[in-house]
Amino acid sequence: MAQIHRIGVLTGGGDAPGLNAVIRAVVKTASNAGIQVIGLEDSFDGLIYPEKSRPLVPRDVTGILRLGGTILGTVNRGNPFAQPIVTPEGTFNYAERVVEMFGRMKLDALVCIGGDGTLAISYEFHKAGVPLVCVPKTIDNDIVGTTNCFGFDTAVAFATDAIDRLHTTAEAHRRIMIVEVMGRDAGWIALYAGVAGGADAILIPEIPFDISLAAQRLRERDKWGAKFSIVVVAEGAFPKGGSQALVEAARKGHVERLGGMGALVSEALARETGKETRSVVLGHLQRGGAPTSFDRVLATRFGAKAVELVKRGEFDTMVAFAPPDIVARKLEDVVGKTKTVPLDSDVIQTARAMGVTFGD
Ligand code: F6P
């Protein structure tokens, strides 16, 4: 097994609370093992532009455990292979430049922290011969092979707090309050925040909804005296026979931006129930703030495990949470797949048993 002297670490895609906790764990555990760490800024840009990288030592990561965001910066550019790279040194093919710079920077391996997009890009670089280990990150919790991604618990905690606050104003005005949460094509945040916040309806992409059925359940609440309701709508939810609401359509190299279903559901429920409705979009607030203790521990374990895998030469892998253990998954088993909420999920069954409607 080749001796590891120097590794690069980068964060890619949308940020999630806990990125700094992983960076800290990578730097501290690598440093304690005599391995130098180079921080690569703005995802793989750190391997393209020489000025976008810097050595990281324990002093640089002291105190960042609790900080949201990422000290390395991140970019979410969709498909970076689509465009040539223009640098002061000339114009390059993206993949060739990254592989060349990896060698020029005398790196022995990379730790790539990111979501589905970063995992897919990393997989391409693995195939091009770059030894790397990935760490799964996303508030959406939609990466296969791991029970949790760090960031998810923090996003759910924030959304739950928001729902708690909406409860009191909903009850005071006897309104239906609609909360739109993130999650792309997976309903994990909506489901968990909905159950934790005591929502009466939860609309998720995995279960196309019929608004009349949802409205009927909310009207029943009025009959037994609950004059208000809370509805959690995943940004990727859509009506039966309909489609997702978009803020921006997909364009070359970029996926579409979801958003707006909460407002549509709000209008439809007002029509169907005759009650006053209001909708709130939690948006990027779900990605900010300090990670929860759960996410800090998970992120720290992920970072330490990534360095362990690098030391053992177990490349082309992603660290994963398989409770109670942190394990390694092969990238090829993970890339290009999405972990959606299983319809037979115990959490869905529990919510249904509690009288929550999914609009079906
Ligand atoms: O994947 C994380 C996520 O926050 C999704 O839940 C959301 O749809 C998307 O990123 C938003 O992306 P952006 O930050 O590019 O608007």
What does this structure look like?
With 360 residues, this protein is α/β, with parallel strands linked by helices. The protein has helices at 19-32, 58-61, 94-104, 116-127, 152-173, 188-197, 211-223, 261-273, 293-312, 346-353, and strands spanning 6-11, 36-40, 53-56, 85-87, 90-92, 109-114, 132-136, 176-181, 201-203, 229-234, 246-248, 257-258, 277-281, 317-322, 325-330. Helix content is 35%, strand content 19%. It has a 7-stranded mixed β-sheet with strand order 3-2-1-6-7-14-15, sandwiched between helices. Strands 9-10-8-13 form a 4-stranded parallel β-sheet, sandwiched between helices. Helix 1 (19-32) packs across helix 9, helix 5 crosses helix 6 and helix 7 (211-223) packs across helix 8 (261-273). The model has no long low-confidence stretch (mean pLDDT 96). Bound molecules: 6-O-phosphono-beta-D-fructofuranose.
Short description:
By secondary structure, this protein is α/β, with parallel strands linked by helices. It is 35% helix and 19% strand.
